[in-house]
Design a protein that fits this description.
5-stranded parallel β-sheet; 5 strands; about 40% helix; Oxidized Rhodanese, domain 1
Length: about 130
Amino acid sequence: MSKSTILLVIFFLGSNLYANELWSVTQLKTKIDQSSEPLVLLDVRTIEEFESGRIKNSINIPHEILLSNIDLVSEYNDEQLVVYCRSGKRASLVIEALEKNGFTNVVDIEGDILAWSEANYPLVELKVN
């Protein structure tokens, strides 16, 4: 094998090392509505963003907290963990950290909560009395 072929093989193997599933918001909505298997919806936005509107049954752990303490989600290691943020940047960082720490069933949402909102899917807001 030539040197360039070996480098290409290494590149492609490395780029897929932390390959996770990528779902559209339509796929996520269908899974939420029809699946009997539980999904863990992990919103990694700030608390303020979470309170302004989230996908029903989501849990919130801001990405900067989660990145420094992955153990906060260790109880979900064997479950399907769906990670989202506003547009995808923070979720990508969290997904990479999760997969480096042994999480194998992690799902990324294409377009994150922006795409969810654009599809007019429901958001739950925190009601303050």
